[in-house]
Design goal:
There is one protein chain. The longest helix has 16 residues. The protein is an alpha/beta fold and 221 residues long. It is built from eight helices and eight strands. The chain binds NADP nicotinamide-adenine-dinucleotide phosphate. NADP nicotinamide-adenine-dinucleotide phosphate binds next to helix 1 and helix 4.
Length: 221
């Protein structure tokens, strides 16, 4: 796959850092977006130690969204829409990958989906049809992504209304070392988002620390 510019908004955080490490090692140009340039620059410096051959760039979120071919939103649910508001004008015609899980502390082990049905659907409603929102990576723990040598067993459910955009994100999941599946329209992101609270509950039992889902049955015929 050709090199793309992937802008990660809130890329200073746990999940954004993990995706940046994986996609930068896959050869993409990474832009780390933040509310402040200084914080983005610190994250880029840290990334340079891990992926010296593919240096990332630091920008404020709006500049990052403008520069990205693909834009990824990696901020907490409470700040999903306020962050999108600051970049909305730069997203027209682009893929916006939304990783948001609508966790509402303190009850993060309880499924609490928003009134729109899911965080992914909420982003699509907010941005309008000219932005191709694709929801993915809700069930992957950030610390697994941050270890670039680790083989991640967990699959990725990929939902979105635009089939080509969904396919591109499945490829990006593969480039990050995971198996992605077409899981239908953006409304279906409710299932992946809800699963995260289930996985948190399973982890709490303490027998495994990184529970995940795997789609089986592909060799049945
Ligand atoms: N962590 C995981 O294992 C995991 C797994 C699957 C999905 N997710 C989802 O991924 C998203 C990010 O999770 P995370 O754990 O990476 O979050 P995080 O580290 O707590 O925060 C990510 C970034 O969000 C930005 N942010 C924080 N407060 C903000 C505010 N008030 N307004 C705008 N931006 C703000 C910050 O960037 P700046 O300060 O640089 O602007 C921060 O570095 C969440 O929606 C989460 O549900 C996380």
């Amino acid at each position: 796959m050709a090199q793309e510019t992937i802008a990660i908004l809130g890329g200073t955080g746990d999940l954004g850092t993990g995706l940046a490490i994986r996609w930068s090692r896959a050869g993409h140009r990474i832009i780390i977006g933040s509310r402040t340039l200084e914080k983005a620059q610190a994250a880029v410096t840290a990334l340079a130690d891990i992926s010296p051959d593919t240096p990332a760039e630091a920008m404020e979120n709006a500049d990052a969204a403008k520069a990205g071919d693909v834009v990824v939103l990696t901020v907490p649910f409470a700040h999903q829409l306020s962050t999108l508001e600051t970049v909305k004008t730069h997203l027209s015609g682009k893929i916006l990958i939304d990783v948001t899980v609508p966790l509402m502390p303190p009850k993060v082990g309880t499924v609490q989906l928003p009134a729109e049905g899911s965080a992914g659907k909420r982003a699509q409603d907010f941005l309008g049809a000219e932005v191709k929102v694709v929801s993915a990576f809700q069930n992957i723990a950030a610390d697994l992504l941050q270890d670039p040598e680790l083989r991640i067993e967990c699959d990725v459910l990929v939902t979105g209304n635009d089939k080509e955009a969904r396919q591109r994100v499945i490829e990006l999941a593969s480039e990050a070392g995971m198996n992605g599946w077409h899981a239908g329209p953006i409304a279906n992101s409710a299932a992946a988002e809800a699963l995260t609270s289930i996985l948190i509950q399973i982890n709490r039992q303490g027998k495994i620390s990184h529970s995940g889902i795997k789609i089986v049955g592909q060799d049945a015929h």
